[in-house]
Each structure stands twice: as C-alpha cells, then as structure tokens.
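Tokens in:
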C-alpha cells in the first residue's frame, strides 16, 4: 500500500511540474506568419483560394488522404462559403469557413478541427510582385489550449509550414496546366507555320494499332480519348486543370499506311501508381518543332502535316514523330481543333 502511495505522489508531482512548466513557459495560443511566392498572376492565384472547390483540390490538408469526404455549401465562393470534412480512416473531421473577403487582396478563414469550439484563424494576404508573380502571406492564430494540452504548440508552426510547402507544389502544378492551356488558346494562329521548343513531358496513355480505312482511324481515336480521359479523371481522380491537353504521337508520314500505330496520352505532372496494364507512362524528351494549328475534318489534317514536312525538307531538316495535340475534345462526326507539331533536327 505504501508503494502505491509513493507512486501516486510521484505522479501528482510530475503532473504538477508539467502543468507549471506549460503554464509559465508555453503560450496558451500561437501566432505566426508564413510567406511564399508563386510565378502566376494575382487573379489566377486568388481564385484558387476564394473558391473552396478549387482550394481542396491542391491543399495538402485535404489531398493527403484518399478516404476524406468533403461537403460544400453555398455560395461555394467568397465570403460566406463553407465546407465540412470527415476522414473515417484517421477519424479527423471539422469545418472551414470564409468569413471575410477583399477581392484579390485578403481572405479570412476559420478552421474548426474535430470538436473544438474555438477555431484556428487564418488571414491570407495576396500581393502582386509583378504581372506574373504573386506573394502569399499567411497570418495564423491558433485557439487557446488548456494547460495539459498546450504542448501541441511546440509543433503547430512546423506542421502548418510543412503543409504549406506541400500545398505549393500542388498549386503550381494546377496553375501551370491551367495557365498553359489559357495561353495556348490565346496564341493560336491557324494555317501558319511556327517554330517552337517543347519542354520534356510525362504522358499517361495507351499504345494502339488500328485500321486507316475511311473514318476508322478517327473513330478509334475518339474511343481511346474517352478511355484515357475517364481513367485519368475517374480512376486517378484528376481534375481538368491538373493535366494538359491530350496528345497523339505517331510517325509523321503513316497517314499513307493501311494500318496506323500511335500512342495516345494525357500530360501529367509526375508519375503515379497505375494498376491497369492497359495504360503506361511515356516520357517525351525536349524537342524543337515546326508547328501548325488546324481546324476542320480529321482527314483534312493530312494537308497541314504535308506542309510541315515540306518546310522541314526545304530547310534541310530531318524530322521525327508528329504530335497531334487536341485543343478541343475529339467527337465523332465533328471537326477537330488540333495543334500539329513535327519534331525536327539537323
């Protein structure tokens, strides 16, 4: 009995010492600031923060778990919008609100984690550094904690900062694809040969061999576009602004053959696990291309391809594959809108 009394006294003393140290040396709440810069215009960056459906696509707090479910509440964007979330695997849940918005300048979030009655307050300030660069500043104020739980404040800032680091990588991937698509659409000049340098890309898609008789090739392309698009969006859970335009890669002059082999893929920012053997990744090295934009029947693209080949021959350039980038979704019995890129080299 005496032994248990001694143990009890020791435990009480330890708890008392812990509580005293927390009370005198650790703040009951924590405030800190995090700053980052992204190479994208202010209006495009702000829209990824004030629209919570956009926000949850790239913020690591929500994307790190595959089992999390999120409910969105009107107005979905700006002041008054809100979400609730629940992760049955980790048993985490909570609610998030946008309480204040000054368009393209500031936002204030309230984050209620689990069953906490007091929220974490997060003010975000957006500052244009240049026309193509934006500084984002987070001002974070955590809720007051009891003496016994106050030790959490030792790692709160590091945990938040780590989440921001991972989120910024995701955000840059989302904005990179979105801005690239917008810029490409704005710069289109049809029936004019251009010279472009294409950076390295990673594609996910399928290898195909099919008949080239009449409309058989185009019907096959439409079918395989749907296969790849559905796999990327449904099986991999990617959103449209997380990947680039679909690309068909084939020999430049195989339009004369009775059977055509091609690779049809969608650009992704990085490799990920793929369990379906029908799909494979393909790495495309940087290339110099002769480019022409074409709009019309798919069969009519041949004339545009021949223009590129003739240009290469006239310039005494050798050529390799032709890349057919579908600016608009290919649909059966409809015209196509594509970018034709012929890789050339000395």
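Residues out:
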């Amino acid at each position: 009995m005496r032994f248990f009394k001694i143990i009890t006294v020791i435990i009480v003393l330890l708890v008392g010492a812990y509580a005293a140290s927390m009370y005198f040396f650790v703040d009951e709440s924590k405030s800190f600031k995090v700053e980052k810069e992204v190479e994208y215009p202010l209006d495009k960056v702000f829209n990824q923060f004030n629209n919570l459906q956009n926000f949850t696509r790239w913020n690591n707090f929500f994307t790190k778990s595959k089992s999390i479910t999120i409910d969105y509440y009107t107005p979905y964007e700006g002041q008054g919008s809100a979400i609730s979330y629940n992760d049955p695997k980790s048993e985490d849940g909570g609610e998030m609100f946008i309480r204040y918005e000054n368009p393209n300048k500031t936002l204030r979030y309230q984050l209620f984690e689990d069953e906490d009655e007091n929220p974490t307050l997060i003010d975000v300030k957006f500052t244009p550094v240049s026309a193509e660069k934006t500084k984002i500043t987070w001002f974070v104020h955590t809720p007051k904690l009891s003496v016994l739980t106050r030790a959490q404040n030792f790692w709160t800032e590091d945990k938040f900062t780590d989440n921001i680091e991972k989120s910024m990588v995701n955000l840059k991937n989302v904005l990179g694809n979105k801005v690239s698509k917008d810029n490409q659409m704005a710069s289109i000049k049809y029936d004019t040969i251009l010279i472009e340098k294409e950076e390295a890309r990673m594609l996910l898609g399928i290898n195909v061999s099919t008949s080239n008789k009449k409309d058989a090739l185009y019907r096959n392309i439409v079918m395989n576009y749907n296969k790849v698009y559905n796999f990327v969006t449904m099986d991999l859970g990617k959103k449209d602004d997380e990947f680039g335009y679909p690309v068909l890669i084939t020999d430049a002059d195989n339009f004369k053959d009775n059977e055509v082999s091609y690779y049809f893929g969608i650009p992704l920012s990085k490799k990920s696990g793929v369990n379906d053997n029908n799909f494979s990744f393909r790495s495309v090295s940087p290339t110099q291309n002769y480019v022409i934009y074409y709009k019309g029947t798919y069969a009519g693209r041949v004339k545009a391809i021949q223009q590129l080949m003739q240009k290469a021959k006239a310039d005494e350039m050798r050529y390799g594959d032709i890349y057919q980038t579908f600016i608009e979704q290919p649909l059966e019995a409809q015209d196509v809108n594509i970018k034709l890129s012929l890789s050339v080299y000395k």
